[in-house]
């Protein structure tokens, strides 16, 4: 098992981030769905009074299936049979806290699970144990700081229109993000994401767990660059606007899953 806590400062308020996250995820879902691969939304509904992280929470529950197909890494496709590259995601969004659990019920079953617990907090990335981890988990946890402006990304992932060092919001005046931008940026909040990966397969455990963690870091980096650089598209939306957009996206996902071609990030 691997445990990492990713800390991602953002030039947003905690309230703003909620809207940006929901909007950007819908956009990215469309970009990654098509031709039998991508995201299928099974359920999206409110939940009430669920016990998580030593507290009772209410919020929005979603159940999705990720049809990976060609997007899965080659060494994963080599040992997983055809038709099993299907990952199920359950998410309980009780913002500013959320929990996501990813499994592979068709093949790996109880031998595979990724859990992501997130807390969104005002200020910088200096809160040491915001999720209240036990001493045992703190010993196992590795902290990884992500800087959406200064961290290097691969040339294949780079898009000029999603570059925080270039982007300037016309509606808010924020950006570009340069150098030590976190020291002077207002507003500022941080996403704390605790990722726990468990893959029980002799001979492949370490390689797969490390690959998943590296993939999560890459996706977190690209996704949060996208949230900021789409700021002018979502900053004036209400939650009602967001939910209508999500409903529209769900219908489009159903169409694209069968016909369209995906355009966005892959797992490679």
TrEMBL record:
This is Phosphatidylinositol transfer protein N-terminal domain-containing protein. It holds the Pfam family IP_trans. Residues 1-251 form the Phosphatidylinositol transfer protein N-terminal domain. One of its GO terms (cellular component) is cell periphery. One of its GO terms (molecular function) is phosphatidylinositol binding. It comes from the Eukaryota. InterPro entries: PI_transfer (IPR001666), PI_transfer_N (IPR055261), START-like_dom_sf (IPR023393). PANTHER family: PHOSPHATIDYLINOSITOL TRANSFER PROTEIN, VIBRATOR, ISOFORM B.
């Amino acid at each position: 098992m691997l445990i990492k806590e990713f800390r991602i400062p953002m030039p947003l308020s905690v309230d703003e981030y909620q809207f940006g996250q929901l909007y950007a995820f819908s956009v990215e879902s469309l970009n990654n769905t098509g031709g039998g691969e991508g995201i299928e939304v099974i359920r999206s509904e409110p939940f009430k009074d669920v016990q998580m992280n030593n507290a009772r929470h209410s919020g929005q529950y979603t159940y999705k299936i990720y049809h990976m197909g060609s997007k899965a890494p080659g060494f994963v496709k080599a040992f997983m049979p055809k038709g099993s590259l299907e990952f199920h995601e359950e998410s309980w969004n009780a913002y500013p806290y959320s929990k996501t659990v990813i499994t592979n019920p068709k093949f790996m079953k109880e031998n595979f699970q990724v859990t992501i617990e997130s807390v969104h907090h005002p200020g910088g990335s200096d809160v040491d144990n915001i999720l209240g981890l036990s001493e045992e988990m703190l010993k196992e946890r590795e902290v990884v700081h992500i800087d959406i402006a200064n961290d290097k990304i691969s040339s294949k992932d780079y898009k000029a229109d999603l570059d925080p060092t270039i982007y300037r919001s016309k509606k808010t005046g924020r950006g570009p993000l340069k150098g030590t931008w976190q020291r002077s940026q207002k507003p500022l909040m941080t996403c704390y994401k605790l990722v726990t990966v468990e893959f029980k397969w002799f001979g492949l455990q370490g390689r797969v767990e490390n690959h998943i963690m590296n993939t999560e870091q890459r996706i977190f980096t690209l996704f949060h660059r996208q949230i900021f650089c789409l700021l002018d598209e979502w900053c004036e939306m209400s939650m009602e606007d967001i939910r209508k957009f999500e409903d529209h996206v769900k219908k489009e996902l159903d169409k694209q899953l069968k016909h369209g071609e995906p355009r966005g990030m892959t797992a490679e």
